[in-house]
Amino acid sequence: MGVIRKPKLTEIVAMKQLLDQAANDGQVLSRQLAEMFENARDFHVYVTDDGVAGLVALHIDLIDLAEVRSLVVRHGMRGHGIGRQLVTAAVAEARQLEISRVYTFTRIPAFFSGLGFQAVDRAELPYKAFKDCLKCPLFPGCDETALLKDLGE
Ligand SMILES: CC(C)(COP(=O)(O)OP(=O)(O)OC[C@H]1O[C@@H](n2cnc3c(N)ncnc32)[C@H](O)[C@@H]1OP(=O)(O)O)[C@@H](O)C(=O)NCCC(=O)NCCS
């Protein structure tokens, strides 16, 4: 049993290790350690007595738009609702900030559909949403789906 909260800076290295494992499996984009410190306030973590077991980031793009990204739950702890709780925490933070739309790029659209995200044509997202694509190894042959959740409804 763990808790979801904002991370301590001393947890960023463990968060990067989790992210790197998933990046090696081709499931998320890797992030530089410096970038993770710069964006430390984007994150929520799921923490147990054994340390960080999950993370997610809410990254603000524009006055009305933010990205849910860097979602990972530790192997062996998946399938227990932690991923769902992490995304819910990120979306709650977006609501608190009065951000009206959150989006994600993913290869598991069904996971996000279950959380109220809807598939959209990526052309519906402003150019800023593609900022990571240019440095992604998959560019331009990306097989991810863009999904959007409208919080203004
Ligand atoms: C994706 C991930 C974060 C899900 O975390 P989790 O804690 O296992 O997910 P949950 O237990 O909260 O699952 C919530 C729901 O999503 C479903 N789900 C979980 N993983 C799924 C997947 N890969 N594809 C489709 N649906 C999925 C579950 O069945 C569950 O549905 P239910 O509520 O109807 O039972 C986790 O599998 C992971 O870390 N994967 C590797 C990294 C990754 O792919 N990140 C996403 C990048 S966009």
Would you write up a description of this structure?
With 153 residues, the protein is of the alpha+beta class. The protein has one domain: Aminopeptidase, CATH 3.40.630.30. The protein contains 4 helices and 7 strands. A 7-stranded mixed beta sheet has the order 1-2-3-4-5-7-6. A hairpin with a 2-residue loop joins strand 3 (51-62) and strand 4. The longest helix has 15 residues, at 82-96. The mean pLDDT is 94. The structure holds coenzyme A. The site of coenzyme A (COA) has 19 residues, from strand 4, helix 3, strand 5 and helix 4.
Summarize the structure.
Helix content is 25%, strand content 29%.
Present as ligands are:
coenzyme A
Note the run of SSEs as H and E: EHHEEEHEHEE
Query: Which fold does the CATH topology refer to?
Result: Aminopeptidase
Q: Tell me about the largest β-sheet.
A: 7 strands, mixed
Give the DSSP E fraction (strand runs of 2 or more residues): 25-35%
Number of strands: 7
First-last Cα distance: 33 Å
Poorly predicted runs are none
Biggest sheet, spatial arrangement of strands: 1-2-3-4-5-7-6
The CATH level-2 architecture is identified as 3-Layer(aba) Sandwich
Entry keywords:
alpha+beta; Aminopeptidase; globular
Layout: helices, strands, pairs:
Elements: E1 3-5, H1 12-24, H2 33-38, E2 43-48, E3 51-62, E4 65-73, H3 82-96, E5 101-106, H4 109-113, E6 118-120, E7 145-150
Parallel strand pairs: 4-5
Antiparallel strand pairs: 1-2, 2-3, 3-4, 5-7, 6-7
Coenzyme A binds at residues 22, 27-28, 71-73, 78-84, 104, 106, 108, 110-111, 114.
